[in-house]
Amino acid sequence: MTRLILSNVFRFLALIVLQVLILNYVYLGGYVLPFVYILGVLMLPTNFGKIPTLLVAFVAGMMVDLFCNIPGFHAFTCTMMAFARILFGDRMLTQGDPDTVIVTPSVREVPVQTFMGYALLMSLVYCVTYGLIEAFSFGNFWMTLLSMLFNTLITWALIMLCQLLVIPQKK
User: Fold this and answer.
1) pTM for the complete prediction?
2) Which region, left, alpha or beta, applies to residue 169 given φ > 0 means left and ψ of -120 to 50 means alpha?
3) 2-166 placed in CATH 1.10.1760
């Protein structure tokens, strides 16, 4: 249990450092910004609990907000994504069986297609929420929509790349 907690804390810190120091400065085409730190929330155990999941997501978002000078954007969007994970994600991962516990949701623990759909849905929720808060108007609707789409795709691609490169094989 202690090893699980330490691995989750280390994962969160590594992803937040990666996000803050590198990915926040990668604007592809001036509009596309990858958000790989959400992988920490996606990989929380399925039996973690609703309130702790929301609190961890809020704290992770606030930590990114502290370094971005946009207080509340990431905290709100990450909490919204955690809420969507509680509503849909855990059911997707466990295939509707509430007794199934996945210690660390990853491509090694669940079928690849299931994790890909789960990561895509959570990335979409995060990026759409972030895009709507960032634009806060319909004045540039098509550019905002395009930005949300590309943010989702690049975030999902980086999450899947992290899953394939970093997560160790099951023994």
Assistant:
1) 0.89
2) beta
3) yes
Contact 151, 35 (CB under 8 A): yes
Nearest to 109 by CA among 50, 62, 171: 171
Q: What does the block give as tokens for 145?
A: 């929509």
Residue range 86-137, pLDDT digits in tens: 998 878 888 767 677 777 888 888 888 999 999 999 999 999 999 999 888 7
Beta bridge partners of 28: 32
Burial class from Cβ neighbours inside 10 Å (0-12, 13-18, 19+) for residue 60 reads buried
Contacts of 92 (CB under 8 A, 6+ apart): 114, 117, 118, 121
